[in-house]
């Protein structure tokens, strides 16, 4: 579908009520301003980022709205709502959810198609090797669609690493991991081991292989494009925080 979730559920989108969106310093960091007034989150907190670049990027999302405000087209703002309103209280639960991907991580599950399995090994094995050293989280791979029994120490390592993150990076990681189907790819994106385009391509290896053989319908292509947009927003969040040194 090309419509936003709100439109799909027949909820009217709010009309744009401001002339200009900008960013400015605030007691909470760098706030998004609409005609000079701070934006509020759904929980009535100030929509503010820990660095100017991120606030400017969010303000650009607001400025890009036309007649109506469509949150579906504002992925950085949606991430910020979670970071500001919810992530501190959900830190432990988010870390545990990320760690659960140790048993179902996309990179561990291999195809019984020899050609696809060979391509998976070529492209995914280096990422598993990286996780074993950089994350202290070795994961096994096997031909299976069921969760694999992985070392408990690997799940614990992923959980500890996730829970130690600030709320902004944890929010981005918590969004990226399910989009990719892989905690390994999510952490690799966070740590700038790979970029967003590469992470998305690696997560789409199976789908792209099948699409080349059988074709891809328009709805699947659009859903993939939406996931990619949200994933690239996570990458932008990470890199803006890194560049600012926060």
Description:
This protein is an alpha+beta fold. Helix 7 crosses helix 8 and helix 7 (167-180) packs antiparallel against helix 11 (218-244). Residues 1-8 have low confidence and may be disordered. The protein has 2 domains: 5-71, ATP12-like (2-Layer Sandwich); 91-244, Orthogonal Bundle (ATP12-like fold), CATH 1.10.3580.10. It has helices at 5-8, 52-63, 75-85, 91-104, 114-134, 152-163, 167-180, 183-190, 196-203, 205-214, 218-244; strands at residues 21-26, 29-34, 37-38, 48-49, 109-110, 142-143. Strands 1, 2, 3 and 4 form a 4-stranded antiparallel β-sheet that branches. The relative contact order is 0.12. Helices cover 57% and strands 8% of the residues.
CATH superfamily of the largest domain: ATP12 ATPase
What profile does the largest beta sheet have? 4 strands, antiparallel
In total, the number of strands is 6
Number of helices: 11
- The N- to C-terminal Cα distance equals 37 Å
Q: Which range best describes the helical content: under 10%, 10-25%, 25-40%, 40-55%, 55-70% or over 70%?
A: 55-70%
Q: CATH topology of the largest domain, anyone?
A: ATP12-like fold
Count structural domains. Answer: 2
Query: Structural class of the helix and strand makeup?
Result: alpha+beta
């Amino acid at each position: 579908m090309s419509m936003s979730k709100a439109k799909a559920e027949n909820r009217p989108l709010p009309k744009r009520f401001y002339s200009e969106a900008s960013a400015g310093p605030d007691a909470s960091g760098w706030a998004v301003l609409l005609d000079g007034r701070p934006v509020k989150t759904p929980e009535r907190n100030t929509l503010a980022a820990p660095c100017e670049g991120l606030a400017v990027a969010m303000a650009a999302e607001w400025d890009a709205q036309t007649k109506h405000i469509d949150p579906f087209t504002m992925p950085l703002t949606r991430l910020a709502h979670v970071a500001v309103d919810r992530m501190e209280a959900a830190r432990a639960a988010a870390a545990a959810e990320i760690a659960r991907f140790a048993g179902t991580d996309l990179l561990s599950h291999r195809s019984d198609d020899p050609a696809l399995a060979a391509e998976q090994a070529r492209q995914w094995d280096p990422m598993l090797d990286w996780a074993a050293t950089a994350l202290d989280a070795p994961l096994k791979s096997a031909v299976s669609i069921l969760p694999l029994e992985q070392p408990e120490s690997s799940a614990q390592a992923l959980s500890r690493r996730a829970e130690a993150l600030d709320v902004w990076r944890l929010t981005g990681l918590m969004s990226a991991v399910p989009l990719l189907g892989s905690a390994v790819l999510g952490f690799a994106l966070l740590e700038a081991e790979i970029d967003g385009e590469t992470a998305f391509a690696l997560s789409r290896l199976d789908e792209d292989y099948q699409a080349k053989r059988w074709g891809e319908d328009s709805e699947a292509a659009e859903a993939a494009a939406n996931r990619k947009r949200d994933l690239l927003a996570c990458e932008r969040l990470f890199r803006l925080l890194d560049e600012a040194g926060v």
